[in-house]
Structure formats: structure tokens, C-alpha cells
Design a protein that fits this description.
By secondary structure, this protein is an all-alpha fold. The chain is built from 7 helices and no strands. The chain folds into 2 domains: about 70 residues; about 30 residues, no CATH class. Helix 2 packs antiparallel against helix 4 and helix 6 packs across helix 7.
């Protein structure tokens, strides 16, 4: 692999940054799957000692990986963000997207969210 593909370009993340990302994904997923879960008595019981130690070891490796990623980020700049349509940048569109995505999970209607985050210049209906 050439050095140019390992480093980030103005349009794309490099191979090293992508490797950090996917290693983090794999370690977090593995730590989740290996974790014994449950009550404190269950987690620290002798029956789950190997799973707990494996989970803790993965967590320590993940912590080291995140530290290396932060150091790499200081050395390697990020690519430029892709161009964005003007309507996405607007505050009104952001508020609408947030309220529409949050309403099914929170039980609140989008109109209640709109009252919480009024947009400057918009008329408030009473």
C-alpha cells in the first residue's frame, strides 16, 4: 500500500484512520457480546470470571486504541466536509428533522417540539 493511500486526502479518510475506526467498532461489539451482564453478584461470580476478564481486557485495549486515535488525529488532518445543500443548513430544517425523528421514540408530537425550539423570525401561533 502506498503512503498516499495511508494518509487522508482532502476528499477521503486514509487507510490508517479507517483501520482505527473499524478496530474500534470490532472491539466495542466484541466487548458487548462477551460481557456477562446482569447483577453485580452475577458479573463477579466465579462462573463468569473468564468472560469478565476478557471484557475488561478488551476495554483496556480499546482505551489504548482511542488514545492512539487521538494522537493520530493531531497528526493527520480530516478531509473537507462534503458540500451541503442550503436547505440542510437552515435552522428550520434541522429543527424539523430533530422533531420528526424524536417524536416516535419520545411520544411527543412534532408540534410540541416546535414550541420548545422557536425559530427567530417565525410567527408564533397562539
Amino acid at each position: 500500500m502506498s503512503v498516499s493511500k495511508m494518509r487522508s486526502s482532502p476528499l477521503r479518510y486514509g487507510a490508517v484512520t479507517q483501520l482505527f475506526h473499524w478496530l474500534t467498532v470490532a472491539l466495542v461489539g466484541t466487548a458487548y457480546l462477551v460481557s456477562p451482564g446482569g447483577s453485580e453478584q452475577r458479573v463477579y461470580s466465579a462462573a463468569f470470571d473468564t468472560a469478565r476478564q476478557t471484557h475488561e481486557t478488551i476495554g483496556i485495549v480499546l482505551f489504548g486504541l482511542v488514545l492512539m486515535r487521538i494522537l493520530w488525529r493531531l497528526y493527520e488532518p480530516t478531509p473537507e466536509p462534503p458540500p451541503m445543500a442550503p436547505w440542510i443548513k437552515s435552522r428550520r430544517a434541522s429543527r424539523g428533522c430533530i422533531s420528526m425523528s424524536a417524536s416516535p421514540t419520545s411520544g411527543n408530537s412534532p408540534m410540541r417540539w416546535a414550541k420548545l425550539w422557536p425559530v427567530r423570525g417565525s410567527r408564533r401561533r397562539t
